[in-house]
Amino acid sequence: MGNPCHFALFDLQPSFRLDMEQLAARYRELARQVHPDRFADAGEREQRLALERSACLNEAYQVLKTPSQRARYLLAMRGPELPLEVTVQDPDFLLQQMQLREELEELQDDADLAGVATFKRRLKAAQEQLNEHFAACWDDEARREEAERLMRRMQFLDKLSHEVRQLEERLDD
Amino acid sequence: MALLQIAEPGQSPQPHQRRLAVGIDLGTTNSLVAAVRSGLAEPLADDDGKVILPSAVRYHAGSIEVGESAKLAAASDPLNTVLSVKRLMGRGIADVHQLGEQMPYRFAAGESHMPFIETVQGAKSPVEVSAEILKTLRLRAEQTLGGELVGAVITVPAYFDDAQRQATKDAARLAGLTVLRLLNEPTAAAVAYGLDQKAEGVVAIYDLGGGTFDISILRLTGGVFEVLATGGDSALGGDDFDHAVADWIIQQASISSDLDPSTQRSLLQAACAAKEGLTDADSVELSHGEWRGSLSRTQFEALIEPMVARSLKACRRAVRDSGVELEEVGAVVMVGGSTRVPRVREAVGELFGRAPLTNIDPDQVVAIGAAIQADALAGNQRDDGEELLLLDVIPLSLGLETMGGLMEKVIPRNTTIPVARAQEFTTYKDGQTAMMIHVLQGERELIADCRSLARFELRGIPPMVAGAAKIRVTFQVDADGLLSVAARELSSGIEASIQVKPSYGLTDGEIARMLQDSFQNAGGDKAARVLREQQVDGQRLIEAVEAALQADGERLLDAEEREVIELQVQELRDLLAGNDGLAIERQTKRLSQVTDAFAARRLDSTVKAALAGRNLNEIEE
Question: Per its UniProt record, what PANTHER family does this chain match (chain B) (predicted)?
Fold first, then answer.
């Protein structure tokens, strides 16, 4: 018997659109049941089990609350295993990514904090648009390829926002 | 003689007595112990009515002095009086030289890489020194509460790394304490503050102690304390303010900075007094030897500005990591003695755009929060019936060394614990049969800039062509924030694992020796204590099993299974009446084994119960 799927654990139907408030509330409810603190007084085996269950729950929550990870998980549920690293065939998007990275470098050279804030807003809007797009096509078998491409794009934007955060840190020195 | 006990509604349910557990704030400058008594968490006082125990240990030829009197001897007996030992916990001797040119001790290298301090009683590790402080607090608690402790929650700075946490746990073990949990100091403060104020929403805890700084951003929701992000600096605190003032005095008085230990200590004391004086006064008079001078608050603020700025930078990073906007932070709580410095309050207020809360006692709040959690972990019901849940995170990323001296992150910082994550690697040479696993902690890319936690080797990999072997390395961080690592070659099943006992920890040999020493010092009643522990363990297991049987026995066990368990319970109960410790231990283990499957079923059923009545989606992964 395998682990129940992340959605089932949270008593949800597999879907890309999730009510985040509800997900968080459900997470807290489940965490109360399995957290090792509840078993501080129990035997060693019981404590170890609680540790494992909690780690699984935390992992599931992490995946479900992060759009790119949720997207990846949904696609993996329905199809073949998705390799983590692939050569992405998405020239237009890659070109756009390169432009964005160049822009980011300029912001760093100019130490332009206001520019970084604007960049972040644009990035967030782009992410939301991608999410909408993915939500509309992920469960359509005919559009599988498109969905996978969108998921890869989400991962790219995640990396980019990580870089923005590192830039903010450097500029904070 | 049985006493008639009257329990208030909601209080300790009969026949089980309230189990004694304490919270301990093991601080750089001061330490405290607190407990929940009559539903109220409060610090416990010593015979003189003082709750604060200065974290000072003085070694005499035949005895050990802890607390205020030891602290007072720091200048007259600097080599045998250890202050701020927390700054040395989990550090290597190299770190110490880097951070501690002003520490007036003579260091000696031990078996491990720990800095041992030479005293009249021989070389003492920071773990042993800390254990003396913990022991003093344990005795105070046992005396005040009138019984043996089930265990303690000990607080650590949120930004402590794995080595520093492990060292703290070792110290507790040496002091004869069962550690129920290592709890992050800002989280403890949030618990005390949140429950007291019935606070909800996003809260920032700014905790500047004697030697460490933490910032934690939490979301409080109905008894759940969820840490969103934490940050800090485990070598930044009020001690550094003192050092800055001391340096200033050296400069002003044009004296050599190469001071003897006694002068160094008295200089630091003068600096500390000046810092404290400037909380209320605009300027203070200072003297050192022949030299006389005065220090204004403005001058002092300029001296500490770089450190205040460092703390603010950590705050901004934590807020960014937490994913909330600055405006969403509903309250900023000041914790730690160093938040009394007016400039610190002002700077934090400016950053968050709101006046920080300073109405709770910054010295006591951490111990009080720890006591509340200790009480809950010991299995006592809370008076208000609200169940606590603390969801904490790891402060620093954990990873592995990969090709080219780079660190590959396996678990990023601010991941909620407990957590388990695996990463797959492969061999890079034909016929390679072993692989070195180097575990690291930190945020930088080069391994040289990260803290090395441990190295171990996976041997016996079947010879294959390069890239064919699949080696899965699993990191697991428990609720104390402690890491264990396992490696496994997937085709052969060859395994290696370690509890990370880092380069900077004590070796097992050192711990064994120290435990032995402490038993000898205790006057040879080791056997009696061991027997007592075996009896307590056995009794606790019986209580746990009986409670479990009563709750779920009917539902989860068939008659035969139940009979087996009950039989083993009875056997253990019979043994408990006697003095055969070994037999008690054996039977306790046996009972634990026969209840294993039952325990697993119970845990699974709690999850199912939480989902009961709902449409369970049966998709398997």
Answer: HEAT SHOCK PROTEIN 70KDA
